[in-house]
Write a structure and sequence with these properties.
With 118 residues, the protein is mainly alpha-helical. Helix 1 runs antiparallel to helix 2. The longest helix is centred in the N-terminal third of the chain and has 30 residues. The chain starts with a helix and ends in a 33-residue tail after the last helix. The mean pLDDT is 77.
Length: 118
Amino acid sequence: MRHERSLDALNFFLADVRQGLGPYLAIYLLTERHWAEDRIGFVMTIATLSGLVAQTPAGALTDVSHAKRGIIIVAALVVTGASILLPFTSSPLFSLPDRKRRPTRRQPFSGRRSPRSL
C-alpha cells in the first residue's frame, strides 16, 4: 500500500511539472525572447512529438532496469537543470532572430478617411 501511494504522489507531481512548464515556456519565449507565436507553437509541437517518440523506449528501459529510482531522479534533474539554464542561454538555437512578417492581407480602407472624420 505504501508503494502505491508513493507512485501516485510521484505521478501527481511529475504531471504538474510537465503541464506547468509548457505554458510558462511559451510566455517566457513570447515576452522575454520576443519569439513569434507560430515559432513557439512549432517548438512546443516538436517537444510534444519528441516526448511521444521517446516514451516507449524510456518505458522499456525503466521496465528492465533495477535502478528505477535512479532513472526518475536523473530525468527530474535534467528537466530542472534545463529549466534553470534556459534564461541564461544565448545559443543561436534558442535565440534565432524573428523573420520579418509581411502583412497577409491589405486593410480594405487603409489610407482613406472615414466619413465621420471629414
